[in-house]
Amino acid sequence: MKRLLLLLALLGVASAAPGQVDVAAELRTAHDLVAQSLREYASGQREAAFKTARAAYLDHFEYAEPPLRVLNPDLILEMEYRFADLRNGMKSGANLSELRAVAGDIDGSLRKAESIVNGTGVLAPTLAATGGFTILFREGLEAALLMAAILAYLASTRNDRLRRGVWWGAGAALAATALTWAAATYLLSIAPISRELISAVTSVIAVVILFYLSFWMLQQGDRKRSAEFMRARVSQAVQSGSLGAVALVTFTTIYREGFETVLFYQALAVASGPVQGYMYLGVALAALALVAVFAALFRLGRRLPTQQLFPALVTVTALFAVAFVGNGVRAFQEAGWLPVTNLYGRVPTLDPNVAALTGLHPTVETLAAQGLMVLVYVIGFAVLRARERRPSRTGAPV
């Protein structure tokens, strides 16, 4: 049974990472580098020791993580923090005896790694599927509403000939989105920087966009101004009488949503890790739901209760932002750019896959960043509500 589990885990790694990964060899190399880092530290080469310890984790242990994380997530989580303790101790000049104790814990865990037999649970796949569904559905719904608005404007001008330009532009935007996803995946795989730094930067950009979208969706005035701007662009394209101009307006409008979708999925794919397949299941379900939405909008001519959907979309968008903040800080920590103050063993810890999808990692820095993000959201929502309740001076009855 153990051999079967290990074989399945190895097959999973082979399909998830470029090339064939020899898990046992990566674990042995990580063990040897930990020992080498202690020798370098003992000889006074602190900078070299830190780099060697970091290489043991980033360049070797991380490649062995996927199957081990699936089989025993608790042990892998503990090892991640022990590696962080080793790096932090070397950077801060800790006593050699303390570092030897940490290294001993790491070595013992490395020896146990080949006999891991646990699974991933249910919550992580559920979160991954929910995330996959929500991102595509939110962005797809926004694109559908924008297309409906453009087609409605063309119908008001009774210029049916230009409707083909809308569908051409939308089709080109979908194709460009698919190419963007493929290009982003390839470029990130060959980027000359660490995977952790890539994950951190992607998370930061995603957080900024999600934060903007959260408050934009709550402000009716901003949505109206955006719709007016879009109608003005469509009006200019219609006046030109060119199918290409209408297609270009539609393309730029829809592709913006597609680009955001690619960015969010890149961040979510990293967080999903071994349960990434469930993320794609959520994507497939969202695609089916969007087919129904498009049919209701363009075939049946029905109006959707989008106003009632905004609170739910805002809530989910805010939760994504909080999760990505935690993951971004954690990625900066793993890359050695931020300190790590471990709370492992002092606060309840989640399954590593759940922690990656929620951003809830047991360090002071990640939890503080998420707490600050929640506080910013609370203050921002309170300010918006106060503005909405404030009576308008210009609109007062005479």
Automatic annotation (TrEMBL):
This protein's name: Iron permease FTR1
UniProt cross-references to InterPro entries, sorted A to Z: FTR1/Fip1/EfeU
TM region positions: 135-154, 166-191, 197-216, 237-255, 275-297, 309-329, 367-384
Family annotation (PANTHER family): IRON TRANSPORTER FTH1, PLASMA MEMBRANE IRON PERMEASE
Ribosomal protein as UniProt keyword: no
Keyword tags: Membrane, Signal, Transmembrane, Transmembrane helix
Organism (species): Deinococcus arenae
Record's signal peptide: 1-19
An annotated GO cellular component: high-affinity iron permease complex
Compartment list: Membrane
Protein's membrane topology: Multi-pass membrane protein
Family stated for the protein in its record: Belongs to the oxidase-dependent Fe transporter (OFeT) (TC 9.A.10.1) family.
Molecular-function GO term, any one: ferrous iron transmembrane transporter activity
